[in-house]
Amino acid sequence: MGSEPIDKPLDTKIDKKLVKEINKRRTFAIISHPDAGKTTLTEKLLLFGGAIQQAGAVKSRKIERAATSDFLSIEQERGISVSSSVMKFNYKEYEINLLDTPGHKDFSEDTYRVLTAVDCAVMIIDNAKGVEPQTRKLMEVCRMRNTPIITFINKLDREGMEPLDIFEDIEDKLQIECIPLTWPIGMGKRFKGVYNLEKKEVGIFSPGYSPKDDDGILIRDLEDERLDELISESQAQSLREDVELISGASEPFDLDLYLNGTQTPVFFGSAINNFGVREMLDSFVKIAPPPGLRPTATRDVNPAEKAFSGFTFKIQANMDPEHRDRIAFFRICSGKYTKGMKVRHHRLGKDIKISNATIFLARERSNIEEAYPGDIIGIHNHGTIKIGDTFTTKEPLKFLGIPNFAPEHFRRVMLRDPMKAKALSKGLTQLAEEGTIQVFRPLMGNLHVIGAVGVLQFDVTMARLKAEYSVNAAYETIDLSVARWVTCEDELILKEFTKRNESSLARDAEGRLTFLTTSEYQLGFAMEEWPKIEFHKTREHNS
Ligand code: G4P
Q1: Assign residue 214 a region: left if phi > 0, alpha if psi is -120 to 50, beta otherwise?
Q2: CA-CA distance, 433 to 317, in Å (whole number)?
Q3: Is residue 486's pLDDT more than 70?
Q4: How far apart are CA 56 and CA 60, in angstroms?
């Protein structure tokens, strides 16, 4: 009886035309430790997709980025980093969005948060090094949404670990089951190629293999005698034995187990030599999921719903020093974007018109007329859009899983000019809203503590405070390395905990209680002492 509830989903009809566009899309990121070969692989993928014509284009940007040390060059390279933040390219009938995970000096919270906007990931492991710390951290984030992972073991042209030892390392450290889809034939100087276990084909390695070439020399039968000639009798024999062994010992690849993050299909190759990359890419477009359901506070959103929706996962400021504008990176979750469309900005309760959305091609930015679920659009604004903001046609949705991540580095901010206290607070709040630093006010004492996931953000913050807010401040080191947001169902226990730990507690920019301490060891100690208190490594944004 009576009128319908206002927040009833307004337009959840499935649009069949949209389904076609959605199924073509693959939105992913590469996770790896620095130097495993992310830049090289990215470049090869863009070459295969025809998005760049020659090797070196992505690499030179990385060199420029790595050389960044002062604020001026940080400013200068912003234009560079934005165009490599999202790279769109086509491969066969697929439209692929590759989101960059900054990994060197520019490692930051964005690196983690980007992973909340993708549907799948490719993990690169250096053949000689196995699983390294940064990969572990990024994998932890992928685990939060059970993101499907394809593994590429790189640098087979160099000596490294035996394949089964790498599998053991991955399975041990990352708790994911490795299912080989290709198998290497030797390594280092004896690296002769890979055997495709699915297609049962041998691909013979030749250094500098170009994507324009045919598929390399392929042998379709392991018993083919030409194999003995091509790769030597002994290597052919050990390949036959390896294949027999893994066919018997390894579990079969199971698409569902891959999609729920339990299994990872593994490919071997050498990114720099373009070898094994096409096999990986061909499987990737086939098995990696197109955009799927996305949870919101009220319901799951289907990408094929007619009504437009999406969320912001990254803010980049001052791309154009002339205009001091910000670009919000916005992931479309359902419906179709058309130029000039009106959407509801729910946090502000306002309708806005998006007329200047940008799409990021491999080498340039261009204004677009339409975009679909899985696509990332850039929306220019003057600081009105925050991370986690949801835009929809009408329905008041709030997408979940775009959190803040606990910072790992901390500095205390010392103001040099006491008259500027207000400007400092304002500057820090606004910079925190862009999501690369977090600001804490300790319960005891007056000074701001800022936290970041990567240390470069401290330099950027200080330089921007000066340039944009005329604040002259300095940092003081502080003996902290761990932060956890704390909650407790029992108010009295939380009160007692707060009283007893006042010197280790602070409020973040949104007023949430945060426990700051010197080490994981100290954290473990507190967790043991306060079993009813929950210590959170991530925190969802306020709506
Ligand atoms: P990153 O983005 O993950 O940090 O790694 P990047 O691609 O820059 O690769 C790191 C180093 O590893 C580079 O060498 C790169 O050439 C090399 N590399 C990448 N793939 C392979 C491979 O398949 N085999 C071998 N042997 N090396 C590979 P660099 O010396 O740091 O740079 P450069 O002078 O070669 O450009």
Answers
A1: beta
A2: 11
A3: yes
A4: 6
Cα–Cα distances in angstroms (integers) from residue 301 to residues 14, 44, 207, 354, 491, in the given order:
11, 34, 46, 21, 34
Of the two residues 326 and 24, the one the predictor is more confident about is 24
Pocket test for ligand 1, best of 40, 62, 129 (most atoms within 8 A of CB): 40
Asked if the structure places residue 76 within a domain, the reply is: yes
Instruction: Tell me the per-residue pLDDT of 193-232, one tens digit each, with 9 for 90 and over.
Output: 999 998 888 888 877 665 555 555 677 888 888 888 888 8
348-362 pLDDT, tens digit each: 999 999 887 877 665
Tell me, yes or no, whether 23 lies in a domain.
no
**Does 271 contact ligand 1 (Cβ within 6 A)?**
yes
Number of domains forming the structure of the chain: 3
- Would residue 3 count as lying in a domain? no
CA of 331 to the centre of ligand 1 (A): 30
pLDDT value for 49: 82
For ligand 1, atom 6, which residue shows the shortest CA distance?
37
The number of residues making up the chain comes to 543
Q: Say yes or no: 283 and 298 in one domain.
A: no
Q: How confident is the model at residue 62 (pLDDT cuts 50, 70, 90)?
A: low
The pTM of the full predicted model, rounded to 2 decimals, is 0.89
Report how far ligand 1's centroid is from the alpha carbon of 36 (Å): 7
- Laid out side by side, the sheet with 390-392 consists of 350-354, 341-345, 390-392, 309-317, 326-334, 376-381, 358-360, 365-367
Q: pLDDT at position 106, please? A: 72
Q: What is the pLDDT of residue 272?
A: 93
Residues 363, 46: contact at Cβ < 8 Å? Answer: no
- Nearest ligand 1 atom to alpha carbon 42: 7
pLDDT digits 0-9 by tens, 380-413 = 888 889 899 999 998 999 999 888 899 999 999 9
Query: For ligand 1, is residue 32 a contact (CB within 6 Å)?
Result: yes
Cβ of 34 below 6 Å from ligand 1:
yes
- 272 ligand 1 Cβ < 6 A: yes
Q: Which domain holds residue 436?
A: 403-540
